[in-house]
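Side project, low priority. Logging it here so it doesn't get lost.
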Amino acid sequence: MKQNNFYIIKTALIVALGGFLMGFDASVISGVVKFIETQFSLTKLELGWSVSSLTLTATAAMIVAGPLSDRIGRRRVLYIAAILYAISAIGSALAPNFLLLVIARMIGGLGVGASLIIAPMYIAEISPAKIRGQMVSFNQLNIVIGISVAFFTNYLILQLGKSEAAWAQTLKFDEYNWRWMLGLETLPAILYFFGLFLVPRSPRWLIMKEEFDEALETMKKATGENAAIQEMEEIRKSIKAEEQKEKVPVAELFKPALRLVLTIGIVVAVLQQITGINSVFFYAPMIFEQSGIGTDASFSQAILVGVINLVFTILAIAFIDRLGRKPLLVGGVAGIAICMFLLSYGFNQATYTLTENSIASLPEEIDRAAIASITGQTFSSDVEFKGAIRKALGEDISKTYESNLITSAISMNPIVILIGILGFVASFAISIGPVMWVLFSELFPNKIRGVAISFVGFINSAISFLVQLIFPWELASFGSSLTFLIYGLFAALGLIFILLVVPETKGKSLEELEKILVRS
């Protein structure tokens, strides 16, 4: 039995590397935006597009990955995903202009969408029922680890850019910092591709294709001969039953009887993204820089975001069946609201004044005469201050040295911002982040579950895309304080909805939940 478990664990860990690549690919851009904004002279919406374009193609890939894997196999789709990750990493690192960078990122998005759907599907299909939950959770855990590693490698490359070591200077980590950040993903992508050669084809897919001998051999390695024969027969019956089922049209979701459950699904899907989680994951260094701590410290604090996300995701996995879904949601979303209000308060208290002493520490490239007109003036908001330095220095110089200027001028407590961000990530990771998908698997009746989860998942991805796209524009137009206040208000409204409408699903059978939620 231990030998069987080792085989399953080894296979699940290899396949779950797709989750690592997804997390890494999605979050590595957080360290890149600062540099590409000036190199390619991007507008705020173009900067948002460089981040959100990956989500757009990932959403499209999620729609086609399932049917494609039914045709050509789970493993083959994962091979394709690994190749797409590698092409994206190399293409992004070598991109000579903004258009080609976005195209390369969108190619990576196809890999993200495919691995997000197929990796957990494959793991579920090869794992015995008693350890299936743990094995599938490897994928979610790897996503979080990938996010953390991306934050760490971004910081590491930034430090290597300052190294006097000959090898570091030869590799030009300083000149090509953002290109190294993006290109580094090539290594785990290649490792994933070759690792998949050690993975068998999905036994369920093999049975679908009537390749019973190969399916049985794989299942024997996973569960032993007797259990494999019994499970194989059950899978054959299940597949036959599925073939006889009628496909449920999307219109079925909008019947009056399903109004309540669909409303819950849509609100929770929107809430998970509208409170700004991907603004933090994809723009963490940018946010920390707004508190005046400088580039190095902003990248190092971003590592803490990844670590907190990892720790509290593990806690969520540990407590979701003990405490229940609703208590985690209530506590977590309340924490999200409080932390966003704290961030809003912290930035609202900030003032910006360039003094003769603070100007002395600015880079020589900043024209002292040009900023003489605003020296000694106190600005009460980041929008006013940034507007003033743009007017004094011009768009390009103000973008390039924005972090230096904010650090020299700002008066605030950056610890408040750090606590707010880390508290927000912790609250999200232990609640609506992982709980949403568990809720979706339990709320919807059996007949429409597949199409319903696809529908609300699509809405979730669409909101994620919009949040990532407009965040740089929001910061520039509304300022940090108002942006985080808006996120906090959304969280507060979501908390009220959860308290009044969302049921506790812990300990209830799917049939019991259907009686409660579906109006006859």
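Brief comment: The first helix runs from residue 2 to 15.
Revisit when time allows.
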